[in-house]
C-alpha cells in the first residue's frame, strides 16, 4: 500500500469508505434508473425496440406525455383513486394500529415479544396467498359475507334487505385488503416510538390533575406524532402505488395508478407515457414530504412558537 | 423543637405496608408530619423511601394501613384528585411544551380560575424561581439547574397542600446543589407548604429538613431533628448511616445515675460516659464517638478518657485534617481536627508514625445498646 493511502485511510478514509457504500447503492440502484425514467418521460413512442425515441429536431424532447397527464381524465381519476384509497387505508391502519401499538407497550416484557411476533407473523405466509384468502372471504357465498349480510339486515327494514353484500371488485375491497396487508408497517414504527416515551411524564400529568384520557391527549398523543408520521408514510407511499391488490380485488374500470403504469408499459407498450405517470406519482408523494421535513426542521431549530 | 413538629399532624401514616409480591418494600410504617414542616425521608437505595413517597402521591396504593392528608383518608383517591404535587427526580418536564406551558399545565384543571388568573399565577411562579426571561424556551434548551426550577415551579403552581420532592438535588453539580438547597428552604418558608423530601444524601437531609426519618429495609429506624439524629442516634445503624463514627464494643463496669463506666479493650482502658441510658453492670454495650469530638495531642492530656496510639494515616483537607490512629489493640480510630491556627507542615500536631494521645469528653461519647 502506498503511504499516502495509509495516511488517508487511517485519518478519515475508513469512515468515508464505509459511508460511501450506501451512497453507491443509491446512485446505482435508484438515482441512475430514476434519471433514465425521467429522460424517457420526455421521449415519444416509436416502433423500435426499445419503443423509445427522441424527436429528430431541436428541442428533441416532447412534453406531450405530461400534457396528457393533466388533460386526460383517465389519469386524473386514477391518481385521485390511488390517493383516496391509500389515504383511507392509512387512516384506518392508524385507528386500528394505534391502540394495538400502545397496548403492546403496556404489557410485561415476555408478553411484549409474543405480541410483536404475532404482528409480524403474517409475513411468514405468502402475500399472494393471503390476498387470495380475502377473495374467498369477500365472495358472495362465503360465511364472512353471509355473516356481514345478516348483521346489516338485522338493522335494516325487511323490504331493504340485501341478499348479499357486493364486496369484491370495489374500492372497499381494495382498502380492506390494503389495511390488512399494511397494518404491521403502521404498528411497528408506532410501537418503536411509544415504547421510548418516558412513563414518568404520564405520572407527572396525572399528578397535575389530568385524568387518563387527558394524559393521553396532552402527553402521549403529541409525543407520538413522529411515530404516526413514520407509520403513515410507510403505509401511504407503497399503498398509493400498489399494483397487486387493486388488480386482484379492485374494480378494473376504476384503476389505481400502479395499474395504469403497468398497462401503459406492458399492454400499450408506451414506455414514455408510463415513465411520465411514474415521475408524476413520485413528485406527488415526495414534494409534500420534503415540505413537511423543511417546516419540521425549522420548527425544531427555532424552538419558539 | 417538639418531636411532633409543632401543630396537630397534617399527614398521618398509620401502619402502612406495601408489598410487591412477597417483598415488603414498606413494612408497617407509622409517621406523623406536621403542617408546614420540611420533612426528609432518608435512606439508602431500596429502603422504601420512594415507595412511601409514591403512596403519598397516589401512584401506589398501600397493601395495608391508612394514609390521611389534612384529615382526609386517601384510600382509593387517584393522584389527580389529591391535594398533592410532586417534583420528580428526572423532573419529567413535558418536552413538547414551553416553560410557561409546563408551569401552567396543572392550572387548566382549576375550574374556578379565569385565563387571566392562570397567566398571573404562571408569572408569579416564574418570578418565584427567577425564570421569567426563559418562559418561551423548551426544556431541551435549558440547563440542568433551570430544568429543576421549572419542575419546582410546575409542582407549586397549583398551590398544593403537600409538595413531594424526589431526590430534588440529585442531578445537580455540587456548587448548584448548595445554592438550590437554600432556595428550596427559602421557597418553603415563603409558601408555607408542607414539603416531604426523599433523599439518600444525609448532608442534603441535614441542611434541608426540619425533621428526618431514617429508613432501612422498609422500616423507619429513627425520627428526629437533624441535631438529635446526628448527636443522639438511637442505634448503631443510624449512628453509622449519618456521618462517620468510631464504634467500640465494651462492658459496663459501673453505673450511677447519668454516668456509666465501661471497660473498652479496643481502646485499652476504661471509658467514662455521660449517659441517661439505664445500663446494668456487666451489660455489653457499644461506645460510639464521632471523629470531630476526639482531641489529638502529643502530650498526655489531663483527665480521663485518654488513650495512646500511633498515627498511621493523615489526610489534609485544608480546613481540617483526618488522622487514622492505630491503638495498641490494633483498632484504627478516625480523628477529625479543625486546622484552627495556621502552621507549616513540620509544625503539625502529629506526623506519620508519631505516638499521640486521643481523648474525648464523657458527654461526647454515646452509649448504644442496639
Derived structural class of chain A: mainly alpha
Helical amount of chain B: 10-25%
Specify the biggest β-sheet of chain A.
2 strands, antiparallel
CATH arch. level architecture of the largest domain in chain B: 3-Layer(aba) Sandwich
- Total domains of chain B, how many? 2
Evaluate the radius of gyration of chain A. Answer: 25 Å
- The number of helices of chain A is 13
Tell me the CATH topology of the domain at 72-269 in chain A: MetI-like fold
- State which percent range the strand residues of chain B make up: 35-45%
N- to C-terminal separation of chain A?
56 Å
Major sheet summary line of chain B: 6 strands, mixed
| Greatest chain-chain contact | A-B, 19 and 27 residues
Class of the largest domain in chain B in CATH? Alpha Beta
H and E order of chain A: HEEHHHHHHHHHHHH
Q: Mean pLDDT of chain B, as a whole number?
A: 89
Extended strand count of chain A:
2
Describe this structure in words.
- The complex is a heterodimer of chains A (305) and B (370).
- By secondary structure, chain A is mostly helical.
- Chain A has a domain at 72-269: MetI-like (MetI-like fold, Orthogonal Bundle), CATH 1.10.3720.
- Helices cover 75% and strands 1% of the residues of chain A.
- Chain A has 13 helices and 2 strands, in the order H-E-E-H-H-H-H-H-H-H-H-H-H-H-H.
- Chain A has helices at residues 3-41, 64-71, 73-105, 109-120, 127-138, 143-155, 171-196, 199-207, 212-223, 225-240, 244-249, 257-267, 271-302, and strands at 44-45, 52-53.
- In chain A, strands 1-2 form a two-stranded antiparallel ribbon.
- In chain A, helix 3 packs antiparallel against helix 10 (225-240).
- The longest helix of chain A has 39 residues, at 3-41.
- Chain B has 370 residues and is an alpha+beta fold.
- Chain B folds into 2 domains: 9-241, P-loop containing nucleotide triphosphate hydrolases (Rossmann fold, 3-Layer(aba) Sandwich), CATH 3.40.50.300; 246-368, OB fold (Dihydrolipoamide Acetyltransferase, E2P).
- In chain B, 21% of the residues lie in helices and 35% in strands.
- Chain B has helices spanning 49-57, 99-104, 115-128, 144-156, 174-191, 202-208, 226-231, 236-241; strands spanning 9-20, 23-34, 38-42, 64-69, 72-73, 84-87, 162-166, 194-199, 211-216, 219-224, 246-256, 259-264, 269-274, 284-289, 295-297, 306-316, 320-327, 332-338, 355-359, 366-368.
- In chain B, the strands form 4 sheets. Chain B has a 6-stranded mixed β-sheet with strand order 6-7-8-3-9-10, with helices on both faces. In chain B, strands 13-12-11-14-20 form a 5-stranded antiparallel β-sheet, with no helix packed on it.
- The radius of gyration of chain B is 25 Å and the shape is elongated.
- Chain B starts with 8 loop residues before the first strand and ends with a strand.
- Chain A binds chain B through residues 198, 200-201, 203-211, 218-219, 222-223, 303-305, and chain B through 57, 59, 78-80, 84-86, 88, 90, 92-96, 98, 105-106, 109-110, 136-138, 141, 154-155, 158.
Amino acid at each position: 500500500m502506498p503511504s499516502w493511502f495509509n495516511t488517508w485511510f487511517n485519518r478519515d478514509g475508513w469512515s468515508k469508505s464505509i459511508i460511501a457504500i450506501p451512497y453507491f447503492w443509491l446512485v446505482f440502484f435508484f438515482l441512475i434508473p430514476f434519471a433514465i425514467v425521467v429522460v424517457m418521460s420526455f421521449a415519444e413512442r416509436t416502433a423500435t425496440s426499445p419503443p423509445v425515441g427522441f424527436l429528430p429536431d431541436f428541442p428533441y424532447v416532447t412534453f406531450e406525455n405530461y400534457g396528457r397527464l393533466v388533460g386526460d381524465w383517465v389519469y386524473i381519476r386514477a391518481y385521485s383513486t390511488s390517493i383516496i384509497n391509500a389515504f383511507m387505508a392509512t387512516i384506518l391502519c392508524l385507528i386500528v394500529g394505534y391502540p394495538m401499538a400502545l397496548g403492546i407497550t403496556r404489557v410485561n416484557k415476555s408478553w411484549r415479544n409474543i405480541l410483536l411476533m404475532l404482528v409480524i407473523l403474517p409475513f411468514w405466509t405468502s402475500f399472494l396467498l393471503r390476498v387470495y384468502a380475502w377473495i374467498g372471504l369477500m365472495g358472495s357465498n362465503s360465511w364472512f359475507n353471509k355473516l356481514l349480510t345478516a348483521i346489516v339486515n338485522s338493522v335494516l327494514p325487511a323490504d331493504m334487505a340485501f341478499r348479499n353484500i357486493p364486496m369484491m371488485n370495489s374500492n372497499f375491497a381494495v382498502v380492506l385488503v390494503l389495511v390488512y396487508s399494511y397494518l404491521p408497517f403502521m404498528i411497528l414504527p408506532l410501537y418503536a416510538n411509544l415504547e421510548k416515551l418516558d412513563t414518568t411524564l404520564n405520572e407527572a400529568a396525572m399528578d397535575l390533575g389530568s385524568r387518563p384520557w387527558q394524559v393521553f391527549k396532552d402527553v402521549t398523543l403529541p409525543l407520538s406524532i413522529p411515530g404516526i408520521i413514520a407509520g403513515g408514510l410507510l403505509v401511504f407511499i407503497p399503498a398509493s402505488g400498489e399494483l397487486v391488490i387493486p388488480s386482484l380485488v379492485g374494480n378494473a374500470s376504476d384503476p389505481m395508478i400502479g395499474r395504469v403504469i403497468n398497462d401503459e408499459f406492458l399492454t400499450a407498450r408506451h414506455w414514455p407515457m408510463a415513465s411520465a405517470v411514474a415521475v408524476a406519482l413520485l413528485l406527488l408523494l415526495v414534494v409534500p414530504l420534503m415540505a413537511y421535513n423543511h417546516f419540521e426542521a425549522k420548527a425544531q431549530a427555532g424552538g419558539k412558537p | 423543637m417538639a418531636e411532633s413538629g409543632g401543630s396537630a399532624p397534617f399527614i398521618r401514616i398509620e401502619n402502612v405496608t406495601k408489598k410487591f409480591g412477597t417483598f415488603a418494600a414498606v413494612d408497617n410504617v407509622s409517621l406523623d408530619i406536621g403542617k408546614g414542616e420540611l420533612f426528609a425521608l432518608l435512606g439508602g437505595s431500596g429502603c422504601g423511601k420512594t415507595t412511601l413517597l409514591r403512596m403519598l402521591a397516589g401512584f401506589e396504593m398501600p397493601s395495608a394501613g391508612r394514609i390521611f392528608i389534612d384529615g382526609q383518608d386517601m384510600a382509593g383517591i387517584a393522584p389527580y384528585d389529591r391535594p398533592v404535587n410532586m417534583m420528580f427526580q428526572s423532573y419529567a418536564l413535558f418536552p413538547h411544551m414551553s416553560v410557561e406551558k409546563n408551569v401552567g399545565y396543572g392550572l387548566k384543571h382549576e375550574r374556578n380560575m379565569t385565563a387571566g388568573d392562570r397567566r398571573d399565577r404562571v408569572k408569579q411562579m416564574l418570578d418565584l424561581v427567577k425564570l421569567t426571561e426563559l418562559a418561551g424556551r423548551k426544556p431541551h434548551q435549558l440547563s440542568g439547574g433551570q430544568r429543576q426550577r421549572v419542575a419546582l415551579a410546575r409542582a407549586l403552581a397549583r398551590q398544593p397542600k403537600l409538595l413531594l420532592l424526589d431526590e430534588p438535588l440529585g442531578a445537580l453539580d455540587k456548587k448548584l446543589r448548595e445554592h438550590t438547597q437554600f432556595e428550596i428552604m427559602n421557597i418553603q418558608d415563603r409558601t408555607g407548604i408542607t414539603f416531604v423530601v426523599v433523599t439518600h444524601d444525609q448532608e442534603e437531609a441535614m441542611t434541608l429538613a426540619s425533621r428526618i426519618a431514617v429508613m432501612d429495609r422498609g422500616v423507619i429506624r429513627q425520627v428526629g431533628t437533624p441535631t438529635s439524629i446526628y448527636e443522639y442516634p438511637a442505634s448503631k445503624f443510624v449512628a453509622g448511616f449519618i456521618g462517620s463514627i468510631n464504634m467500640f464494643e465494651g462492658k459496663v463496669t459501673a453505673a450511677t445515675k447519668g454516668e456509666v463506666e465501661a471497660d473498652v479493650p479496643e481502646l485499652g482502658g476504661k471509658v467514662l460516659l455521660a449517659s441517661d441510658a439505664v445500663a446494668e453492670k456487666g451489660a455489653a454495650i457499644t461506645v460510639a464517638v464521632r471523629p470531630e469530638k476526639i482531641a489529638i495531642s502529643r502530650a498526655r492530656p489531663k483527665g480521663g478518657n485518654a488513650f495512646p496510639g500511633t498515627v498511621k494515616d493523615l489526610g489534609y483537607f485544608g480546613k481540617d485534617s483526618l488522622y487514622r490512629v492505630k491503638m495498641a489493640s490494633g483498632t484504627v480510630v478516625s480523628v477529625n481536627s479543625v486546622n484552627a491556627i495556621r502552621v507549616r507542615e513540620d509544625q503539625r500536631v502529629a506526623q506519620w508514625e508519631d505516638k499521640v494521645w486521643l481523648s474525648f469528653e464523657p458527654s461526647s461519647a454515646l452509649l448504644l445498646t442496639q
